[in-house]
Each structure stands twice: as C-alpha cells, then as structure tokens.
C-alpha cells in the first residue's frame, strides 16, 4: 500500500501542478456597474424608470449556440442597482417575435428548450460556487445553486429555495424582467465593491443560446470559469450577517400498510428549520424534527447490474453548500452521501429502513477569501422493534482555495452508535469513520480539470488484515476539437464508508475517454464527431475482472435535435452466482462472460409542443441475448403544463434454466400549473422488475414567498395480483419568517 501511495503522489502532483499554471485566457472579462439608489423600484417587469437609464448595462452577449464566433443578433441588456437592503436587477431581451416556448407556469424549471434568462452571481469570486436567479417571459421564476465550477449538469441544484421577487413584461420587440433580491438571501464578502457575474439566455425565436462572457462551444453554458464583473459604484454593499429566518411547519397524515395488515395510522408532526447568518459568509442551519414528506419521489429505473443505483439528494436542508460535504472522492467512492442520514439496516432482513431524525445543525460557508468550512451534525432515533440503535452523524470539511479556481480539502465523517444497547452484528457497529484529503484542479480557462484524493476508513470491526484505503486520480483536458480524460480509482477490500456511496470494493479501475469535436460548414449541423470510452476493473491479486469499451458517434443539430450511434463490448467476471433480472430466477453461475451490444438515440427538437427521445439497443447479454427500447415522449400544453411519458422495455433471453423475461417500466408524469403559485404533479410508475405500481400525486400552493401548503397522496400496488401494498395521504404547511 505504501509503495502505491508514493507512486500515486509522485505521478499525480507534477501533472496537476503543471496544468494549474496553464492560465492563459483568450477573452477579456466584460464589466458592468451597479448604482446606489435611495428609493426602491416599481416592480412591474418594465424597466422604464429613470434609474435604469443611469446604469451601465451588461450587454454585448455572445452566441454559444449554434456558433460561438459572433455576437448574438438579438441582444440582451441587464441593469443593476442597490440600496442598503436589496439588489435590484432589470433586463431587456430583444426578440423577433412573440411565439415563446413556456412549458408551464411551474417555478424552478430547467433552461433547455424554452425562452428564459438566467443570472449567475459569484460574490466571493472563487469561480467555484454561485447563486442562480432566472425568469421567463411570463414571469415564472427559478433559483438554484451551482457547485464545483458548474462543470456538469449534476452541479446545478434547482431544489434550493430562497426569498426574492420578480415580474416580467412583454413589449413590442422585447420581453423584460425586474427583480428584487434581498441581501439577506445572499452570502457575500463585506466591504468588497466587486462581484463576479455572468448570464445566459435561451431564445427559441432565433434558436440561439447566448452568454454575457463569451463561452467556447465545447464548454458547458453554466461554467463558472467564464465570469464578468459587477462594480458597485456607490460603495460596497453591506453584508447582512446576523439575520435570522425561521421556517416552521405543521403536518399530518393517514397511512395504512395492507401487506402487514395494520390498522389505519395517524401521524402528526410539528417542527421546523432556522437559518442564522454568521458574519458575511457563514450560515448556520438548524432543524428540529424534520419532515420530508413533500419531497418528490425518485424516478425508478430497471437495474440489471450487480450494484446499487445512485439517486440524488432532494431534501432542502442538505442542499446549501452541499458540494463542501459531498464532492470529496469519486462518484463511485464518495465518503459522504447525505441520503444515508436517517437510514439504517434491519438486522433481520438486511434491508434499508428509514429512521426518524430528531434534530440537526449545519454550519457552512466562506471564512475570508480563500477558506470554506463545513460542520454537520444529525441525530437519528433508535428503532427498538428492529433492534436498531440511534446513530449520530457528524461531518467536518475544510477547503482552501489554491490559485485561481483550484482547492485542497480535508473531510472527516463519523457515524456513532449512541444507544444504550448494541448487538454483535456487523450492521450495528459502534462507529464508522472516514478521514480523507482531496486536491481539486480547475484552471482559469477551464482547459484542465481534475483531482487527486486519498481516504481511509476506520471501524470497530477492523481486524487489521484488510485494506481500508481508497485513492484516485482524475484529469481532463478540453480543447476546441478534443476532450481527453483519464481517471483511475482504487478501493480497498476493507474500505467501509457507511455514510458514503461505494457500490464496489476491492478494485482498481482505470478509465480513458477520447472525444473528437468537429464543427462542419453545414449550417444545420452544429457539432459531430466520434468518442471512445473504456473502463476496466482489476481485482488486486486476481487480475482483470471486468472490462467495457463504448464507441460513439453523434450529430448535434441547429434545431436542438441530436442523433447518437454506439457499439459497446463488455467482459464480466462473476465471482458468485448472479441473477441480472433481479426477479429471483435461477442465477447465472460464477465465471467469465463476454458480450457486445449496439444501439442509438434520437432526440427531437425540444422547442416543439410534441418532442421525444428514443433509445433502441440490441445484442448479446451474458450467455444469451437482449433487446430493448427506452426513452420519453413529451406533450406540452403551454403554459399550463406537460405530459411526460418515460418508458423502458428490456427483453432478456438466457438459455435454460436461467431467466428469460421481459422487464417493463413506464412512468408518465402529468404536470398541471393552474397559476404561478398552484401546481399539481401526478407521477405514475409501473415497474415490472420490482412488481410494483406507484401513484404519487403532489399538490403545492405557494401562498406566500417561500411558504407552501402541500397535499401528497401515495399508493403502491403489487402488480402480480394488483393488491394494495400501502397507501398514505399527507398534508403539510411551511412558512418562511424573517425575524
């Protein structure tokens, strides 16, 4: 182990440090100003007040789609003003018509495929984390957080909420917005008269996307590597440290477990959260008896792999500064995954079951220009009937900025059994701990990205014989015509992260990705090119266990449609019997299997009222064959909602006596938006693999800013006999109160 670590550090750090100092940037950052005012604005969406004429607007937007070499034909102008309490924003978006694409009136929409303007604020100027506010021509609002420099869609979290107001207006050749954003809703350095800022706009009239700071087409549109500046002319805004927000809730519901034969049970609850600003950059979040009954259900999947499926965190309490706790390690060796909190193992069945959380606290944010800190502590209840102890979860993280956008960090995770009883099973260990260090690379021009990390686990079950380390290296190079990526991950056989996400242990896994990007002269084809991705899994001491290679060729079109073709080959070494259908059929015996598959994907123009994606695939599968089709069909009844029909059908044909079965999943989602404050979502999911049909209907009424009433109905049926498994109805009201 020591030799491997020395080699890892010797190879990794010179490469990462060389990349760190490749800081040449082709484009100068644009600048704008914010003027101090003494009176507020009339919030009507039409920026016709005299104050806006005194501002220097952020304008001169560059196209980033379909090309990235010219200024946008239909420009955008953004104006800023402020006083002691609020930041005021106005914007004019010039258009050639009024045939806007507005999928629904639901807030917190995603930007793709519709008309909207997004504002990205980075007050601490670290180009790592940002706050997002956005609006569309009908005044539908959204706010979100961007983590990790905005390098992937997973770094955008629209579940985050905060208090602000906005209105829109549609003129003759433009649509416009006005916003009032309280400084209490922002975290920014006290005394700094300059913030980093960027903006991007989707315009379906001209089928273009544009950004204020020019962003190359091979980069993601929300990348924080490309930021302009806002200068506050009347002096730096005063940070609102010490502010207090209380968010109480009251809720209750009825539920019945038909399979267990229990009577109808009533559950009532009162609790809430609090947010306390500490200084200019820190926030203390508190929660007492948290309730997450209103959180939208996960989209189910068909899983034919041997490993656990990852589902993202959706609970509001865990989202702010979530990257500070959750971005350590690798996506397949993550030391902290917040969805583990409040989850325990049934000592009889081994299945995961939820635990009530009594209370929790989280301190997170910036300390000075270069330091971020995070401290989280949650206490879960014991489940005496299951023989499960009460666990306490503690996470501490520190991150130090290095250079323009890179950082080094340390994380410590502790899961502690605080009950006055215990057992001798592995599931109820007295403690489980992780200690780790990461170095994250992100160069100024975003040409190089990567990380190197080393983590170790500690448990009272250790016998001193296993390998309880994990380490990894990732390095990505982005150039206009080439994206190159190399990663490797090592997870020891005894590495145990009970509060993390580690689906596979005892492996060394290198990955190589190569993508060529061409920009043809054809005005209808924006990008095309091949890609090759290979991943191997070596089992230390036993050699190559699994191997996969995927060749891809795709075409991206000016009308936002896309075509992809792929071929992939897989080699799998089963070390124990396994049923890939997960239907309790006769499992395949241990041994080596090799197979190849072919497929593709077609995505239609998302601006149309009717759009679709289709993904057929066929070929070999273990010692048999498989074919299937998946995708989605969307019909938009603008602006009152949409029907999204998601489906996945896989037929697996294995020789006798092994499973030959059809697995079918269909999940229609019906969105109705009666107004900009009343939404109804109905989610139906038929999953043949789980033999379950789920109905989840969620009514939300936003009766005041960031204050909601929820009514949630859930029904689950066994699809074999269509008998009811369980049923519940929950009502919950929350209120956002600034003290």
Please describe what this structure looks like.
By secondary structure, this protein is mainly β. Helices cover 4% and strands 51% of the residues. The protein has 3 helices and 40 strands. The strands form 3 sheets. The chain has a 24-stranded antiparallel beta barrel. Strands 1, 2, 3, 4, 5, 6, 7, 8, 9, 10, 11, 12 and 13 form a 13-stranded mixed beta sheet that branches. A two-stranded antiparallel ribbon has the order 17-18. A hairpin with a 3-residue loop joins strand 3 (76-82) and strand 4. The longest helix is centred in the N-terminal third of the chain and has 19 residues, at 2-20.
Architecture (CATH level 2) name of the domain at 25-232: Sandwich
Task: Indicate the CATH class of the domain at 25-232.
Answer: Mainly Beta
Shape descriptor: globular
Q: Please report the distance between the alpha carbons of the first and last residues.
A: 54 Å
Number of helices in the DSSP assignment: 3
CATH fold-level name of the domain at 25-232: Immunoglobulin-like
Global mean pLDDT: 89
Radius of gyration, in angstroms, nearest whole number? 26 Å
Portion of residues in beta strands equals: over 45%
Sheet with the most strands, sense and barrel status: 24 strands, antiparallel, barrel
What are the key terms here?
40 strands; Immunoglobulin-like; 13-stranded mixed sheet; 739 residues; 24-stranded antiparallel β-barrel; 4% helix; mainly beta
Outline the secondary-structure elements.
Blueprint: H1 2-20, E1 31-36, H2 50-53, E2 62-65, E3 76-82, E4 86-94, E5 116-122, E6 130-135, E7 141-146, E8 156-157, E9 165-170, E10 174-182, E11 194-203, E12 208-211, E13 228-232, E14 244-257, E15 265-278, E16 282-288, H3 322-326, E17 343-345, E18 352-354, E19 357-367, E20 371-380, E21 391-402, E22 406-417, E23 431-442, E24 448-459, E25 469-478, E26 482-491, E27 507-516, E28 525-539, E29 543-557, E30 562-574, E31 591-603, E32 610-621, E33 624-636, E34 641-653, E35 660-673, E36 678-687, E37 692-704, E38 707-718, E39 723-734, E40 737-738
Parallel strand pairs: 1-3, 1-13
Antiparallel strand pairs: 2-12, 3-4, 4-10, 5-6, 5-11, 6-7, 7-8, 9-10, 11-12, 11-13, 14-15, 14-39, 14-40, 15-16, 16-19, 17-18, 19-20, 20-21, 21-22, 22-23, 23-24, 24-25, 25-26, 26-27, 27-28, 28-29, 29-30, 30-31, 31-32, 32-33, 33-34, 34-35, 35-36, 36-37, 37-38, 38-39
